[in-house]
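Researcher: Last one for today. Full complex below.
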Amino acid sequence: MATSRKSLETERNLAWLVWILPALLVYLVFMAWPLLNSLRLSFYTGSGFQLDNFIGFDNYRRLFGGGEESNRFYGAFGNTFIFFAIHMLVQNSLGLAFALLLSRKDLKGRALFRTIIFIPATLAIIVTGFLWKLLLNPQWGPLNLILGQVGLGDWALPWLGEHNLALPVISLVSSWQWVGIPTMIFLAALNGISEDYFEAAQIDGATGWQVLGRIKLPLLLPIMSVVAILTFTGNFNAFDVVFAMAGPNGPPGYATDILGTYFYRTGIAGQHPVGIPDMGLGAAVSSVTFVVLLVGVLSMQYLGRDRDAEAQKKAAQK
Amino acid sequence: MSGKPFTRRSLSALPGYLLLGFWSLLVLIPLWVMVVNSFKVSLDIFRDPFGLPVTVSTAGYEALLAGGSFLTYFFNSLLITTVSIAGILVIASAAAYGLANWTSRASRYLLLVFLAGLMIPIRIASINLLGLVKDLGLMDSLWGLFPIYVAMGLPMGVFVLTEFIKAVPKEILNAARIDGAGSVKIFVQIVLPLTRPALATVAIFNLVNLWNDLWFPLIIIRSDDQRTLMLGVTRLFGQYQTDWNKVLAVLTTASIPIILLYLVLSKQFIQGLTAGAVKE
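Model: Here's the assembly. Have a good evening.
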């Protein structure tokens, strides 16, 4: 009796697997397997799609071993990091500030501000990039026009043409687009904080700044690691905004070249002007990106989790 | 409204309004410039890019329509986005139904496998996906995007829908089961209708992501008649670069549908686009 019931349950369990199967199949064939196979292909070379010549770590030597190709790669890697750091600094700080403001129930026009802040996140990156490229145009662009009219003509720079300026400017445009995401995540977390904390603080006579520093920010720490992870994966994977505002070659002089554009040139479209892609090398670039993402995400998750667990342990001990 | 936090009185609101007001202008002025100048003649754009048009000109839009390609791009994007979203919703909701009901350890591991896809961007697999699309004979075809887009939407779809279906009260399902309803009937007649808000979240998330995607069309599609809207926009931008009212007409037409939809459904949009993060 007992065994037959058990076998009946197993049967029903396997029936559930049938519901999952189509999704699992698509996921494995078009996501998991291509990802793992890309790792494998990074050890091969060949022409076009025919990657049949095993060469060990040669592709990685080309990336890390010095020389012109390797300098490009290191440059793109460094630029990607700067791109990410500017998002962390500008986009996420602004997002936090906006969320703190929007969580104040006495603020008039909250819904309107929230709607406006989030609009750019619904635009295509390519549209944002092209639009800002026009706005920043050194000759005809409205920005330099305003600067000239208010007597700041000296500040009217070729925003995307200067070596030290182009990457930060593109990063700021991208932050402009995505600031709504951390804003909404922080806002949801702030709205989730129990009123009890604020009432207790009120009884203790805490000032607004004390409430911010001792209650709100500490309680937001776990969600900050979530935002950091999202920013990290989003930006180490970026491509469109540089492609739109600067082009696939990362001008001027590779100052805006990031991993996405480097990968596109080496693995997909080929180096200009020759135009023959090296898919093995491309696979190596994406494998490095994969490892960086994996290590970064896991360590940020670990840092975020650790604090949570510690706090819970402490609370349990008390 | 009792028990308000006192912070509102102790921190002055003025700097906050200034910051939010400044940022709102920084968002709205570029969009205003984009839309208003698409209706001007070039000379007026350079003379005064911020004001209303002196003479309203629809030349930019007429050029777009006359070219013919733009409508093709627009229709292609509409088609591939709709079909992909339908595919995602069907197989992700089925999988979520299975994962929510299957009470074995394997089911939990499978959910984790899907979740891993939220962290790893599928673009990294591009080299191999290209080979796969080629083997399927879908290189340079709009339909080459379909399996990739479905795979792209699955992790978030499975995650959101599984959480949602798990929250459906067991009593409702048990009552239906006692009435003799099979799992297919329960899924179609009870679970799916109850899951509508989550289905909307998943649909909107993918609508924005797929409509706005440039990367996969860029690496898969070459022929003009297969291009998606965003790939077409890159072509037209290069072609019209010095013709600002045409360029701005392109950018406006490409972005206004989604912006309008967002203004109508802003709550669902914000929910959809931040849903991937809420799982922690």
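Chain B touches chain A through 95 residues (CB under 8 Å). The two ends of chain B are 30 Å apart (CA to CA).
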